[in-house]
Write a structure and sequence with these properties.
About 45% of the residues lie in helices and about 15% in strands. By secondary structure, the protein is an alpha/beta fold. The strands form 3 sheets. An 8-stranded mixed sheet has the order 8-9-10-3-11-12-14-13, with helices on both faces. A 4-stranded antiparallel sheet has the order 2-1-4-5, covered by helices on one side. Helix 6 (about 200-215) packs antiparallel against helix 7 (about 220-230), helix 10 runs antiparallel to helix 11 (about 305-335) and helix 10 (about 270-295) crosses helix 12 (about 345-370).
Length: about 550
């Protein structure tokens, strides 16, 4: 169900015959679609950019929902606000000049825009059309700390421009490894602390791997390397053993020495174990802080006029502040007591086992996105890779934490067709295996038809139609959605003449009054120029914002 913004007019208008393409009855939605819980609920999201020419209303009342294990497609022309929607959800809008002005983004019961109204004040500048923004940088910094509990771990993003999202100074393995340590660091450190390189099964598995390496059978080498990793108890050993064994047939003695050196790297000294426990304690403190930030963003119910509820909410907030202060003091004390781990000369020696382990884990991640020669790529830097290779590194980084929601902003634009299919299959596997929900932003309607469960059609900062992908493709209602589908070829209609939508996306500093699509719409009526159309329900979870339809207005 779509929630209609409160500022929309809902007066009745004369009945108008439906468009020619909208004559088929609505298809029944799958029962399972309505039983999955909602994991992300975006309500009346508004994002503006304050420029010298005026205020750009990039998003003006965007509302949609994403259910668990569901892929939602977001389509529209360039400049419609698709990427701004993704950045607004994770609060990555560059400020200045942009600001998320209002709305709600509900995730796990927490409003990710909590405290937004106290972060800035606005004052209109007379006779200029501009607005002066006074920002509270202390509150903005606190909001960034709260969002660190969400970004990467629970909501991960594949950015459209990988060259701008990666640091050219650090290697690929360093940047992937940072994500692993932040979001899966406790699991990695626990494996290293409980590794047993002297276990009875290590030597037989090691001998079997060398024997299979001489035969050169890839599948047998992979299986034997996995058994070596299981015997040692560290997953990265299996990846390293595989790459050592690949060249064992040409240099068996050297491969034997490298294999023993690889197993020996998890034989930690007491100083290295002490350092790993120190890093683990810091990670656990950060995880507890993240939970407190989530509780804080859940806010409280409205307590005006209820002294008892107000006192209870005040006590809850005071308890959260005390717990946060205690954790921050624990983190400061932990770093102060072990400051010597940051000294030059000491740091490189004690961190070497952890860095080696993280390196081979990043190699495994790069294998998952079908990068050739992942060892060399992991050691390289972003400027050494092509755009498509960088895009795959970004995809590996986003998938590494197995997030609950994956926002994919044009994830396959820079990839060739065969790699596109593999990446889409990888995302589908993550959805089926972990239950990850996906917000897929793309221009390619064929990709939406292939992988999406629901589709939202966006135009000029508003969503004009949304519903199940089969229903929208079979029976598009809004003239803009019909124009998009009419502009692509169809295999069942080889003689079909393709059409285009005249005009372009309007200037959002001075958007058209009423329906924003009416200057380009062939069915525009006088009422379309006067009032913004309400969102009406035209089928099971199929809604449209157009005066050509007279279904029930979506519930608020």
């Amino acid at each position: 169900m779509v929630i209609a913004p409160a500022n929309r007019e809902t007066e009745t208008v004369p009945t108008v015959a439906p468009l020619p393409l909208a004559t088929a009855p609505p298809a029944a939605s799958s029962p399972d679609d309505l039983t999955h819980p909602v994991v992300l609920d975006v309500r009346d999201l508004r994002t503006y950019f304050f420029t010298y020419d005026g205020v750009v209303r990039a998003l003006d009342g965007v509302t949609f929902r994403i259910r668990r294990g569901e892929t939602t497609g977001l389509v529209g022309e360039t400049g419609c606000g698709k990427s701004v929607t993704a950045f607004s959800i994770t609060r990555l809008i560059a400020d200045p000049p942009g600001r998320v002005m209002g709305g709600q983004v509900i995730f796990q019961g927490a409003d990710l825009l909590w405290g937004l109204d106290r972060e800035a004040k606005y004052k209109a500048i007379k006779n200029t059309g501009r607005v002066k923004v006074s920002r509270s940088f202390r509150r903005i910094k606190a909001a960034g700390e709260r969002m660190s509990a969400i970004r990467g771990r629970s909501i991960s993003t594949i950015f459209q421009e990988p060259t701008q999202a990666m640091n050219p100074v650090f290697s690929i393995s360093d940047q992937l490894g940072e994500v692993l340590l932040l979001h899966r660091g406790t699991r990695v450190i626990d494996e290293m602390l409980h590794a047993n390189p002297d276990a009875p099964g290590v030597q037989p598995a090691f001998d079997e791997l060398l024997a299979d390496a001489v035969d050169g059978n890839r599948e047998r080498i992979v299986s034997a390397a996995a058994r070596v990793g299981d015997a040692v108890g560290v997953g990265s050993i299996a990846t390293q053993a595989f790459y050592i064994a690949r060249g064992a047939a040409a240099r068996p003695d050297e491969a034997n020495r490298e294999m023993r050196r690889a197993i020996r790297r998890v034989r930690l000294s007491w100083v290295q174990k002490h350092y790993l426990r120190h890093r683990r304690r810091l990670l656990v403190i950060q995880e507890q802080l993240n939970q407190l930030y989530l509780e804080q963003m859940k806010g409280g119910s409205k307590v005006a006029g209820d002294p008892g509820a107000a006192a209870q909410e005040g006590a809850r907030r005071s308890g959260l502040r005390r717990a946060r202060g205690k954790l921050l003091r624990q983190r400061l004390r932990e770093r102060y007591l072990h400051f010597y781990y940051g000294l030059w000369g000491v740091r490189s020696r004690i961190q070497r086992p952890l860095k080696q382990d993280i390196f081979w884990r990043t190699v495994k991640l790069l294998e998952g996105v079908y990068i050739a020669n992942p060892v060399q790529v992991a050691r390289g830097y972003p400027h050494e890779l092509s755009g498509g290779m960088l895009q795959r590194v970004m995809i590996a980084m986003a998938l590494s934490s197995e997030p609950e929601i994956l926002i994919a902003d044009e994830p396959t634009t820079a990839l060739d067709v065969t790699i596109q299919a593999q990446i889409l299959e990888l995302m589908r596997d993550l959805k089926n295996r972990v239950g990850t929900s996906i917000l897929l932003i793309t221009h390619d309607l064929a990709v939406i038809a292939e992988v999406a469960d629901r589709v939202c059609v966006m135009y000029a900062g508003v969503i004009v139609e949304q519903g199940p992908v089969r229903e929208v493709f079979r029976r598009p209602l809004h003239p803009y959605a019909q124009g998009l589908l009419a502009s692509i070829p169809r295999l069942d209609q080889p003689d079909k003449q393709l059409s285009s939508i005249p005009g372009s996306v309007p200037d959002l500093i001075h958007p058209p009054t009423g329906c924003r699509f009416h200057p380009r719409c062939p069915y525009a009526m006088p009422v379309c120029k006067e009032r913004r159309p309400p969102v009406t329900v035209e089928g099971p979870e199929h809604t449209v914002a157009c005066y050509l339809y007279r279904g029930p207005v979506a519930a608020t």
